[in-house]
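Q: Predict the bound structure with phosphoric acid mono(formamide)ester.
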Amino acid sequence: MAKANAVRHFLDIDRLDSKTLRRMIDNAHDMKKAGLKVPAKMRPKGIEDKVLILIFEKPSTRTRVSFDIAMRQLGGTTLALNHTDLQLGRGESIADTARVLSRYGDAIMIRANSHDTVLELAEHATIPVINGLTDRTHPCQIMADIMTFEEHLGPIKGRTVAWVGDGNNVAVSWMHAAARFGFNLRLACPDELMPSKSYLDWAKKEKAEISVGIDPVKAVKGADCVVTDTWVSMGDKDATRRKQILKPYAVTDSLMAKASKDAIFMHCLPAYRGHEVSESVLEGPQSVIFDEAENRLHAQKGVLAWCFGVD
Ligand code: CP
Ligand code: NVA
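A: Predicted complex:
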């Protein structure tokens, strides 16, 4: 949990309390309603002098562009870097990089290969660090997903979300969110690709309403939202095997038909049609994927505003 005067890192959903997360989402909704350029009275104090540093160790379309534009629409500026442009790529330590960047910028958003890189950066930075996806989690995505769910179906508390496919980084952030936002999460993943036991143990300890199994039909039955993601995440090496074992987890029209009749379909994108989801579901009336992508922009304004001191 964040301490009163601590640097406001946004590292993972499980590290923040429900109230703080709820305020970030509500603030994001309010800023979205107010228009793309955030009105002066809703902006963090002194934002016009602040610079958000963006670092990417892996490719990105949505995270890169939405953070860059969100920061500008909040009234600040950005500096985007590939990690190969930095001495980090030649072996300078993460700790030294964190301390140097803290002398120049006002916050760092990083997409990293290893989660430990983000944690180490945050440990040594004196400015907020935001996790823009790691091998373990993708919290900014799920903030946008919660926002999207609520725009379409109302409060997420007590509702049911079904995750079908790989128990990957995005699935883990959904688990964190189920505990903090109080919804039921049903995961259907092949045995080999279940989220690791430590996350399941955490969920139990938090008394989160999370069930795990291998049957996609059971998970989706009556659900309000069906979510999936690519079968091969950035950094995964066993693409052929993954595609084989995940075949029964494709989200098709017949699987969607088992969900509630008003259910929505979400996918963080990029999507691979004919693999984890059929073209007809992705482009069909239940799909809200482009609202979800748009909400990265708005949800991250909520995250940035919080990092810069807005409660
Ligand atoms: N969903 C998502 O994070 O997309 P990018 O990889 O394009 O940033
Ligand atoms: N699970 C995917 C998400 C991409 C936004 C990956 O890590 O590549």
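A: The pocket of phosphoric acid mono(formamide)ester (ligand 1) is lined by residues 60-63, 133, 141, 268-269 (CB under 6 Å).
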